[in-house]
Amino acid sequence: MTNLPVRDLRAAIAGPRFRSGLFWGLATAFPLLLLGWEFFRAGISMCAIALLALALWEGSAGGGDGWSPPQRLWRRLRGLGPAWWGPTLFVWMLLPSLANSDHLGEWAGRLQIKLPFLAMPVAFGLMPRPTRAQLHGLFALLLAAVALTNAGVGIYYTAHFDEIQDMISRSQPVPTPIHHIRFSLLSGISVLGGLEILRGGGFSDRRGLRWAVGVGTLFVAAMVHVLAVRTGMLALYGGLLAWGLAAAWHAKRYVWAIGTVALLALAPVAAYQLLPSVRAKVGLMLWNLERYRAGEIGQYSDTQRWASYEVGLAIGNRAPWLGCGIGDLDAEVDAEYARRFPDVKPMLPHNQWLFFFAACGVVGLLFALTAFFSPLFWEKKYQDPLFAGFFLLTTVSFMTETAIETAVGVGLTAFFLSLLMAARNPE
User: Fold this and answer.
1) Which of 14, 33, 385, 411 has a Cα at 20 to 30 A from 395?
2) What count of Cα atoms within 13 Å lies in the side-chain half-sphere of residue 216?
3) Helices assigned H by DSSP within 160-295
4) What ranges in 252-403 are assigned the alpha helix state H?
5) CA–CA separation, 146 vs 275, rounded Å?
6) Average pLDDT in the 146-161 region?
7) How far is the C-alpha of 303 from the C-alpha of 245, rounded, in Å?
């Protein structure tokens, strides 16, 4: 490259191959940065901005068509299908909520967190679609990073077994490098990616790599059970169910569907019998249920989650059409807890749909449902095993937590949703 004339070097940098290569290099790094959220917060934001900037550059590039770069970009943005704009409703739906939000700082904070739902679909929609090799490479690196991180978590768990078992009995999670639920979800996504590499013939000319992918996939799936994060386990089961059924349908091997259902039915039973962490979590959940029925909330994760459902429904039912306002939800939750559970630390409704109902009412909930489900029907994405698996995994997480009310949760969901929309359906 050093022998090229300056103009040729500039032409190479300005060319589509450079933009595409740089974009997919950053896209491959993005989920790895999410895995190291505590150390790379600024890097995650910068990476997301760079992805969008490269896509806008791609959208405005070209020549010989009589259009200026801004005109060319505008035409290409208009040419994106409706499904690409669907997830952006997670952003637009918050704008009307300004009218009934008194706490403008909280409203602006919620809006800022959701911005990746605007940036990621636009970025992946404007760029050339990824090849299967690019997709397999991204998920292989993610699987390797997640497997190594899980190995570290497992070593720490083994070295502090009694201490961590006591933590579990007191509703505390096994220590992980990022929030335990996000870590479990990212582990589940890497499992689905590993399975798709094997199903799609990835690294078919490198037998050793395929073995490594298979072993890594099994190890990470096992560690999801060792961590015993119930949202992560349920989300993994949902993702595996959707992936298995879609893969069986695609291959016309319907016995695979029966095997998938049977395996997923046996997996939790085996986990309960073999893993102390799972037994401890099940016992704790049953004990918490007794406490909740007796009217005792305490500081336990299950009782607090169930109490948050009561609070969310109460707030939503007071203003069922437009909600209390996204900016005022925290204040409304504090007030409702003071009335119902004065001795309990307030917690936002631990269900994403209930969160939207309380904050934005039925109208906002309908927009959120449209934002979430519209990509499922883009090019019949429900037939793509990897997309179907990710989608059901995410659906489960929405039912058990406020999955997209943190920066990591939004980044994870917006990135993989957009990435898998861009990927071509398997032939």
Assistant:
1) 33
2) 28
3) 161-169, 180-199, 207-227, 230-251, 255-274, 276-293
4) 255-274, 276-293, 301-318, 329-340, 352-373, 385-400
5) 21
6) 97
7) 34
